[in-house]
Design a protein that fits this description.
Elements: E1 8-11, H1 14-21, E2 28-33, E3 38-42, H2 47-53, E4 57-60, H3 66-75, E5 80-84, H4 90-99, E6 105-109, H5 112-117, H6 122-143, H7 152-165, E7 170-171, E8 176-179, E9 199-205, E10 207-209, E11 212-213, E12 216-222, H8 227-246, H9 253-266, E13 278-280, E14 287-291, E15 304-307, E16 310-313, E17 317-320, E18 323-327, E19 332-334, E20 343-344
Helix pairs in contact: 6-7, 8-9
């Protein structure tokens, strides 16, 4: 802020507000002042919660929170006020711009807090580790009941239920369960489609525990898989292991993507790999860095990322294998304990 000659920074992203202040409520704005300190603005529902969680001053008010922020900015004669350009609605931006004093300006900034959040503290890694374990345990409990005739929605509901039973606040994202040809949809929403004999099943799930996310994808097969399924699975597993092996401090994110993609190219499957090899995660399920073809972010110890290559063949199905890993000085630690072999049921 000092380098950019900013007087104040208005933080509106719930995850960033939580990261900076400790406040976990769903309605809050954080005003960071260049002169020192910060003020959390929230509504009366969170009066007690904010006083217990926030490590800064708290102001409680009714109505739109920005209406309580603007008088503070005017009183402090803030001339240059930064805001999160990718996190603020246009309506709020207009209100901010119109409510500032004459000769004051609203300055868009991007990624400042997210860059800090990329590198996790030991305490954050411990929370992610716990989330991963809860997720894997929920998976084991739920898949034991998979059988012919059960639906995608049935299994998704059971996975979410088991996560909560094991202590999660809920799923980190909408749980993905797909069967048969629908496994070729990378983000398939669970439907009433039932599992048949000799069917492929894709499960992509994550738990949210104490605010931190996990992410895992595993493949199941009801019956006896044919040679095409076995070959595709072996190729994706080889690619995933190559991606993990490429993770180490000091390499660019694109190197990891390239390692996984190179394997699939050798198997003639690169064109069926339609997304990046992974992404960061933490307070949000998708955070920087993105492990894509052109991402030049340097991997640093403490980054929590996913490694998840996949292939998707229309009319046949898709296969994806995903782990949550933490970058270390010498490589990475795979946090996900669930075996990566194709689960035959």
């Amino acid at each position: 802020m000092a380098a950019e000659k900013l007087d104040a920074f208005l933080v509106s992203s719930a995850a960033n507000v939580r990261y900076l202040s400790g406040f976990t409520g769903s309605n809050g704005l954080l005003l960071v002042l260049s002169a020192g300190g910060a003020i959390l603005f929230t509504d009366p529902r969170y009066r007690i919660q904010a006083s217990l969680e926030a490590d800064c001053r708290v102001r409680v008010g009714t109505g739109p929170l920005l209406g309580h922020v603007l008088p503070v900015l005017r009183k402090k004669k803030s001339r240059r006020v930064a805001f999160e350009r990718s996190r603020m609605t246009f309506e709020m931006y207009q209100s901010l711009k119109e409510g500032l004093p004459l000769k004051s300006s609203a300055e868009p900034v991007a990624g400042w807090i997210e860059l800090q959040r990329m590198i996790k503290s030991d305490a954050e890694i411990a929370l992610i580790r716990h989330s991963v374990l809860v997720n894997s345990r929920a998976f084991e409990r739920a898949v034991s009941g998979v059988r012919v005739g059960k639906s995608e929605k049935d299994l998704a509901a059971e996975l979410d239920y088991q996560m909560r039973r094991l202590g999660a606040e809920g799923a980190a994202f909408e749980t993905i369960v797909a069967t048969g040809a629908r496994t070729a949809l990378p983000h398939a929403q669970p439907t009433a489609a039932v599992f048949g004999a000799n069917s492929l099943i894709l499960v992509d799930m994550g738990a949210m525990c104490e605010g931190y996310a996990s992410d895992m994808t595993r493949m199941l097969f009801l019956g006896r898989p044919g040679s095409r399924v076995k070959r595709a699975y072996a190729a994706v597993l080889e690619a995933q292991l190559a991606g993990i092996a490429a993770v180490k401090a000091g390499v660019e994110a694109q190197v990891v993507d390239r390692a996984a993609r190179r394997v699939l190219r050798r198997h003639g499957l690169e064109r069926a790999f339609v997304h990046s090899t992974g992404h960061g995660l933490g307070l949000e399920i998708h955070e920087p860095p993105r492990l894509g073809k052109r991402d030049r972010t340097m991997l640093v110890p403490g980054m929590a990322i996913t490694i998840e290559p996949g292939v998707y063949l229309e009319g046949f199905g898709g296969i994806r294998i995903e782990d949550t890993v933490v970058v270390t000085h010498n490589g990475c630690e795979v946090l996900t304990p669930t075996p990566k072999t194709l689960r035959i049921l």
